[in-house]
Design brief:
- The protein has 320 residues and is α+β, with helices and mostly antiparallel strands.
- It contains five helices and 17 strands.
- The strands form six sheets. A five-stranded antiparallel sheet has the order 5-6-11-9-10, with no helix packed on it.
- It starts with 11 loop residues before the first strand and ends with a strand.
Amino acid sequence: MLIPNSFGLTVKAKNFLSIDTFEDLSELHSIKDNSILILGACTNVILNKDIDKTIVQVNFKDIKMYEDYLSVGGGVDWADLIEYCLNNNLYGIENLTHIPGSVGAAPVQNIGAYGVEVSSFIHSVECFNLLTQQQETIKRKECKFEYRNSIFKSKNYIILKVNFIFHKRFMPNLSYPALANYLIDNSIDKNSLTPQMLSDSVRNIRNSKLPDPRLEPNVGSIFKNPIVKTNDFDRNFLLGHRWDQDNGMTKLSAARLIELIKPELSIPRTLRIYEYHSLVVINNGKASFDDITNLLNQIGIKIFNKFNVELEIEPEIISI
């Protein structure tokens, strides 16, 4: 069957299993672990044309409020969770507005934007352990969340539900410069800011920088911003495009690094680097898996050779 994906690649899979109820999990016992590929909405993956595995997709769509936490099915669209929170006085993830994908995919790489990471609001994750063939509930500390990383990248877990604890009082995080500047430029008083206004502001910023994958196929940021030892680089290196972190580390702008080597790249006609954000690569039509992976490798090699900085690809590359 054909697998829809936001990069617009033609991808066929051998088999497909939809997990709509807990009873459907019993079908996993007959499939070898190495023959399973867990996919969500396919907004952050680059897939080869033929997948010789069984695609497993979770379609739990329930949202239920308990006394201490909000339980959300892994198949819920992330945009629907944002809307639910805005309508039910649950605060904290407004900065994560307009991120494509499903709730079940959010913990995998600890999605984040504009100074906020989803891990800050996760209480626990309910999943199916492919190694033990048992259902488990993993507490937040056990998830080992880091920048765009978690234990779920091991592929040993199928995320069924995510349990959140949100703020009951609106405390906007305006620490990210682009967001703070947007409010100033649009004469929005931070003292009168509402959750809906903050969410709308983030949506507007993202729309101004990132193309709609339904119109121009892409997977968002193609590389992670590298975190390096501050003392390894001159203080003037990437000035204005670097941010000091804790413990003597500095985050560098991957977009700026790409801009600096862009004239040296050999880019196939099937692809282009987005005009308004160098971290986005667009499928112009009929791009192949090899087209995109070759371009990403070319970018990584040139930046390492020129600046001694290693870039890590953000979307998952699935070649099997």
